[in-house]
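Let's practice the habit of predicting before peeking. Look at the sequence and jot down your guess about where helices and strands might fall. Then scroll down.
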Amino acid sequence: MVELQRALASRIRRPFAFMARSTVWSLMPNVLCTPICPIATALSQLEDMTLEMTGQSAVYFHDKIAYDYHYNGFADDLSEGERLAGVMGGKPVLMLANHGVVVTGKTVASAYYRLY
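Done guessing? Here is the structure:
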């Protein structure tokens, strides 16, 4: 699997994104989709990007969001994907400091629902 990931990364326009996501996909078997929302980048820029559960509709996200305050933006190695999967700890949403949010799902529809 590692050789396949490296071979594919060498042919992809944005290998940084692929290196991290492909490792997350392999370490989290129920994850098949990881879209990114540019709008969430603003939230990730805050000193404390923790999202407060302030309304009834937020209950859906209770204990489903992981936070990575140490993300540095470079995912040029499979170990960064392993680290991100570890930070996620099985949670479907990951806020990355100064980057944005990674939302996972078994399908594109489920990831999109979590994202918006």
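How did you do? The longest helix spans residues 15-27.
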